[in-house]
From TrEMBL:
GO CC, alphabetical: extracellular region
Signal sequence residues: 1-20
Pfam families per UniProt: CBM_14
Residues covered by the Chitin-binding type-2 domain: 20-76, 77-137
UniProt cross-references to InterPro entries, sorted A to Z: Chitin-bd_dom, Chitin-bd_dom_sf, Chitin_bind-dev_reg
GO molecular function terms attached to this record: chitin binding
Keywords: Chitin-binding, Disulfide bond, Glycoprotein, Repeat, Signal
The protein's name: Chitin-binding type-2 domain-containing protein
Keyword Transmembrane: no
C-alpha cells in the first residue's frame, strides 16, 4: 500500500483541482481545469468530466480525446525514468504547464491558469515575477540564493 501513496496523493490533488470551479453565476460552457479533467457548466450546475484511460483534455475541441490526437501539452509524453517523484515545469510550453512523475512513470500534464507559470520551488502556478528562472524572472526566489 505504501508504494501507492504518492499516486493516491497526486490523484487526489488532480481531483481537488477539478472541483475548484463553481458554476453558480458563470456562463454556460466548458472550463479547462487540467489535462485529465474539465468542468462543464450548464445553468449554474457543475459537472466534472474526467478523461479516462488513454485520453486527455483537448483545449481546442473542449473534450477528452485519445492522447495521440491531442495537441501539446496535454497530448505530450515526458520521460520520467531518471526523475524523482514530483512535479516538473514543462519548458516546451514556457512553463505554462507542468508534468507529474511517480516511480519513474509519467502521469500527465497539468495546466497553469492564463498568465501564470509553474514555480517549482513553491509547487504552484505563479506570476513570473515571483518564480525563479528558468520559468520566472525572480533570481532571489530560489532556495539557497
Amino acid at each position: 500500500m505504501e508504494k501507492y501513496l504518492p499516486i493516491l496523493a497526486i490523484m487526489s490533488f488532480l481531483v481537488s483541482t477539478c472541483s475548484a470551479i463553481v458554476c453558480v453565476g458563470m456562463p454556460d460552457g466548458v472550463y479547462e481545469t487540467n489535462c485529465q479533467a474539465f468542468t462543464r457548466c450548464v445553468g449554474g450546475e457543475t459537472e466534472i468530466v474526467n478523461c479516462e484511460g488513454e485520453t486527455a483534455y483537448n483545449q481546442e475541441t473542449k473534450q477528452c480525446q485519445r492522447k495521440w490526437d491531442v495537441p501539446p501539452p496535454c497530448g505530450t509524453y515526458r520521460e520520467c525514468s531518471d526523475l524523482k517523484d514530483g512535479f516538473y515545469p514543462d519548458m516546451e510550453t514556457n512553463c505554462h504547464s507542468y508534468y507529474i512523475c511517480v516511480g519513474g512513470a509519467f502521469l500527465g500534464h497539468s495546466l497553469c491558469p492564463a498568465g501564470l507559470v509553474y514555480n517549482r520551488y513553491q509547487g504552484v502556478c505563479d506570476y513570473n515575477y515571483n518564480a525563479p528562472p528558468p520559468c520566472g524572472i525572480n533570481a532571489t526566489a530560489a532556495p539557497g540564493i
